[in-house]
Amino acid sequence: MSFRSLLSKTLGAIRQTPHKFAASAIEVPFDETTVIYAIGDVHGCLSLLNELESLIAQDFANHGDKCFLVMLGDYVDRGPNSAGVLDHLTSADQNPIKRVYLAGNHESTMLSFLSQPARNHEWLRFGGVETLRSYGVDLSSLFSAGYSAQSVRHLLNSHIPREHIEFLQGLHLVAFTDEHAFVHASIDPQRPIDGQSEDTLLWRDAGAIDYAGYGRLVVHGHTQVASPLLDRGRIAIDTGAFATGKLSAVRLRTGFEPSFLTTD
């Protein structure tokens, strides 16, 4: 039986404790001179992220004086170059476009694995194998016959830059303006912005919630859609980049309808 087959036998294992993010809600300044772009789930697709950021830079030249770029999480897993995506994000220039980074459930699961690496950890069935490969870590050597927790941590630390881990640990869970709520997965409309549960923000399907009377337009990723969707008080912009080649963003500006940008 192959090692990957052995891993598939552990689907019934109890879910490991997810990472708890220290940072919670962050307010984004927004007025008639400001344009906000929000980008959906990148999932290791660095080339698509570079392409979309170029489209945003060109678009911003014709809209507003100040710009914020809100990224909705799930930077890692499934796609081919998670290490490259995190390298790009940790070195991205903050001017003239200010950046706000939110956490996704994949970042939570990755950090959980890094703190307690195990053969049956859910992250390894969740896109983690592709992320480890992007750092040059071979799964079979990670859990070799001479495996020990200390040796695994040493191997991970020698391949994954400390600044990448610190970046993930410092992610926010939700961003907001007076008009919008930005989140990876969903918002509970019955609770205040700063009183949301991490499970709701990172895992719950926003498509099952009606935000029409919420008071803020909810902008989210996580739940994959064929094309960006404006529906019942929410905008969904996870277009499945790792599988479809389409990475999407929404442009938000006072007095204008939401507009979408997608890689071709």
Backbone CA Rg? 19 Å
Main β sheet profile: 6 strands, mixed
Strand content: 15-25%
In CATH terms, the superfamily is Metallo-dependent phosphatases
**Largest beta sheet: what is the strand line-up?**
1-5-6-7-9-8
Uncertain regions: pLDDT < 50 for 5+ in a row?
Answer: 1-15
The percent range for helix content is 25-40%
Distance separating the two termini: 41 Å
Using the alpha-carbon principal axes, give the shape.
globular
How would you describe this structure in keywords?
264 residues, alpha/beta, 6-stranded mixed sheet, 5-stranded mixed sheet, 11 strands
Descriptive overview:
- With 264 residues, the chain is of the alpha/beta class.
- It has a single domain, classed as Metallo-dependent phosphatases (Purple Acid Phosphatase, chain A, domain 2, 4-Layer Sandwich), CATH 3.60.21.
- The chain has ten helices and eleven strands.
- The strands form two sheets. A six-stranded mixed sheet has the order 1-5-6-7-9-8, with no helix packed on it. The chain has a five-stranded mixed sheet with strand order 4-3-2-10-11, with helices on one face.
- It starts with a helix and ends with a strand.
- The relative contact order is 0.19.
- Residues 1-15 have low confidence and may be disordered.
